[in-house]
Every structure is written in C-alpha cells, then in structure tokens.
Amino acid sequence: MNQSVKQAEANHMQVVIEQLMTEAMKQAEEWNALSLKARIEAWGEWAETKPEDRRLLRFDRIIQAVEEVH
After folding, report:
1. What are phi and psi of 22, to 5 degrees?
2. Which UniProt keywords apply (predicted)?
C-alpha cells in the first residue's frame, strides 16, 4: 500500500472519529438537558427494549456508558 493511500485512510478515520465525538457530545448535552422524569422514562424504555434493538433508541450510547460505569 503506498503512502498516499495510507494517508487518505488516516484522514478518513480522523473525520469519522471527529464525527462520532461530535455526535456523542451532542447526545450528552441533550441528555443533560432532560428533566429527571424524562431521563427515568428514557431509561425505563431502554431497559424494557431487547438488547439487540436498543441501538435504535436515541440515548442508547449514553445509557450504555452510564450502565458500564456503575
């Protein structure tokens, strides 16, 4: 693999990582803006959803991260 292809792949990965970080920060801000009641409702919906379907829920990544910490 030549150097320009490696550099293009590295640039692409950097863009993807930045996009994921931006989205994660946006979701965290949205989660923090929710009332306690709304957080509990979202968490309850998440807990009642089959694990393979949870990724479709808006705050799946946030709740997963909190679950892993606790």
Report:
1. -60, -45
2. Plasmid
Task: Give the pLDDT confidence score for residue 1 in this predicted structure.
Answer: 65
Q: How many CB atoms lie within 10 A of CB 54?
A: 17
Please tell me the pTM assigned to this model.
0.70
C-alpha distance from residue 57 to each of 9, 12, 49, 64, 65 (Å): 30, 27, 9, 11, 14
Q: For residue range 1-57, what is the model confidence (pLDDT) as tens digits?
A: 688 888 899 999 999 999 999 998 999 999 999 999 999 999 999 999 999 999 999
**2: phi then psi, degrees, rounded to nearest 5:** -80, 170
What does the block give as tokens for 19?
Answer: 């996009």
Which tokens is 27 given?
């979701």
